[in-house]
Amino acid sequence: MERQIPKKNYFILLIVVIGFVLIVFYLRDWYNTTRLYYAETSPILEVSTVINENEISNYAQENPNFILYVSSNENKEVRKFDSEFRDLIVDNSISNVLYIDITENSNITSILKDFALNNKIANKITNNSSLYSFKNGQIIDVVNDVTDYKVKDLEKNLQKNGMIDNG
Length: 167
Description:
Blueprint: H1 7-40, E1 49-50, H2 56-62, E2 66-71, H3 78-91, E3 97-101, H4 108-113, H5 119-124, E4 130-135, E5 138-144, H6 151-160
């Protein structure tokens, strides 16, 4: 006696295979979308507050002690630093980090010069990837070309300026 397989089993198998293929394509698209998203955005956005350059004054009045990180999101060389700096922020539980994405026509230098503690600091303010330490609403330290620094050196600098506990 030969055993017969009902036709409905073939139909169920066909639906399972089609469903599996659709799920695989969906997961592939989802993977590509997230990979593209993270390739185009800075890792620092995960742990910082994005602010507009015109909002700095209001923020400084409400929160006088903070770190301002300024860089161009289009600069691919900064991404490695951003990832390491993000880890530094997480490891030290720093919650007062602001981020400004600058462009070529940004007037961030003229805005920040109003917050400089003295002329020496005002002369350090540039329109490149920089880290500004604010204390009592004034810039007390500037680190220019942050990609030239090791994160450990920045950590020591932030500890010296009282932005990170020395613990």
